[in-house]
Specification:
The chain is an alpha/beta fold. It has 18 helices and 17 strands.
């Protein structure tokens, strides 16, 4: 089976969140299971682009409205990723340092999708599946079926995976002229709420729709930023498949980004050594539990609740824990979190920004990972934390519900809470401090966490069943 993944992100070329991690791992494990899986994405100006060798694979030309442009498909020369990686180079449109955040993002990603579909029409043999990820690839199923220039592709099956349904990529109807000649009778497939909505279009046009956890799939009928009724209509073709993690990349026994390696037998000693390094670097008390938050400082991650919750917890427990916040996002939240550093020296610190190595070091050092997310389709951080023997503290939503069992339940190994509020977070912190004081229970929970398997192997089989069903 030949599978083409189309995505705006793919680690290590370019990553803004979990989408990049998933697209950077799933095709590798599909290839290990004897499929032929590849990724095509925009060519951004990133370090990975500059530090690797590429070869020209294809040159083509097409148009974005009345702008006729040349595009080049380049391919990574080495096979180090475990799958072929192709980049779409459109001079002046995609070759920029950031993935998102430009005023012409709609044009950028429409141009990217047009180039991908145009390239596919030149293949001698068509792929079995075109697997589109999020709204940045959401117009492709429509183009393949209903654009006159791409009728050659109309029988190729398409799958949409939704990594976050809060973002639709909606745009005004003035952008319709950018889409290659299409059947005007199919206007309703593009439209949602009087706009062109690429995510809604993909849900309507793709042969199958998946999202990244079973619980999140059910939540989309109740909370999907205006698409709730659409999920009710298209429910028969929707499937929830929990993400996996790359156990080769995320492995505390071999991870080149952490100072001290360990496995389940050496976990207590290994985590202690890594914790000592982090606590020294950030001026924290190594004798107290280390609770970390790693992620974007945005509303859906409930980052705005963190400053108040942490201050309340430190005051209520008489600084009975350490906190380290790693992330960037809303500037007001960043400022509020940084302000706490001067109030609680020795028990609190921040790293504003994100660095892959710092993230790995934090997973290896921390005792607990805090994820109070308002929205969490799957969540990979809690899976990384389990792999590194770090106990997850999570809000009971989406994929967090599917992957973390509260320690008060049978075979429980984590801490769950119901609401993204200061009170629920503070109570969970108090529970974490209590567990930390009970060394026997703490050791038992850590060792249990490390033996939970969230690898991609079983997930790949679930995707294969989806492909075969269409």
């Amino acid at each position: 089976m030949v599978i083409v993944h189309v995505s705006a992100e793919c680690y290590p070329m370019a990553k803004a969140g979990g989408l990049g991690d998933v697209v950077g791992a799933l095709p590798k494990y599909q290839n290990k299971m004897d499929d032929h899986s590849m990724v095509v994405m925009p060519m951004y100006k990133t370090k990975f682009l500059e530090q690797n060798e590429w070869e020209v694979h294809f040159k083509g030309n097409t148009n974005l409205g009345d702008w006729f442009f040349d595009y080049t498909i380049i391919k990574l020369k080495n096979e180090s990723l475990g799958f072929p990686l192709y980049l779409v180079d459109i001079n002046g449109l995609l070759d920029r340092p950031k993935i998102y955040g430009y005023t012409d993002d709609h044009d950028r990603f429409i141009g990217f999708q047009i180039a991908v579909v145009n390239w596919l029409t030149h293949w001698a043999e068509q792929p079995s599946i075109v697997h589109c990820h999020d709204h940045q690839a959401g117009l492709i199923p429509f183009m393949m079926k209903h654009c006159y220039d791409y009728q050659k592709l109309q029988n190729v099956k398409t799958v949409l995976t939704i990594h976050n349904a809060q973002y639709h990529g909606s745009m005004g109807w003035d952008k319709s002229i950018l889409i290659p000649r299409w059947d005007l009778w199919k206007k309703g497939l593009l439209e949602w709420d009087n706009c062109i909505n690429p995510l809604a279009t993909a849900i309507k046009c793709a042969d199958k729709v998946t999202t990244v956890s079973n619980t999140y799939m059910h939540q989309l009928k109740l909370q999907s930023n205006g698409l709730e009724s659409l999920f009710e209509i298209e429910w028969a073709k929707c499937v929830g498949i929990l993400n996996g993690i790359d156990n080769e990349l995320w492995n505390p026994a071999t991870d080149p980004m952490i100072p001290y390696h360990y496995d389940v037998k050496l976990v207590m000693e290994g985590k202690k050594k890594n914790k000592e390094i982090i606590c020294t670097r950030y001026h924290l008390d190594v004798k107290k539990p280390l609770i970390v938050f790693i992620g974007r400082l945005v509303h859906e991650k409930a980052a705005d609740v963190l400053p108040g919750a942490i201050q309340h917890a430190l005051d209520k427990t008489n600084c009975g824990a350490n906190f380290l916040i790693i992330g960037a996002g809303d500037t007001a939240t960043e400022s509020a979190l940084q302000y706490l550093v001067q109030l609680y020296p020795g028990n609190y610190n921040t790293f504003i920004g994100y660095d892959e190595k710092t993230g790995h070091e934090a997973y290896a050092a921390a005792d607990f990972l805090l994820m109070p997310s308002r929205v969490e389709p799957c969540g990979l951080n809690q899976m990384y934390s389990l792999r590194y023997g770090t106990i997850p503290m999570v809000r009971d939503t989406g994929g967090l519900h599917d992957t973390v069992v509260d320690m008060g339940e049978l075979d429980g190994f984590g801490i769950r809470f119901l609401h993204a509020t200061e009170n629920d977070i503070v109570y969970s912190i108090e529970r974490a401090i209590s567990v930390f004081k009970d060394k026997t229970q703490m050791k038992k929970m850590i060792e249990y966490c490390m033996q939970i398997d969230h690898s991609w192997e079983s997930v790949v089989n679930d995707y294969k069943k989806v492909y075969q069903s269409i």
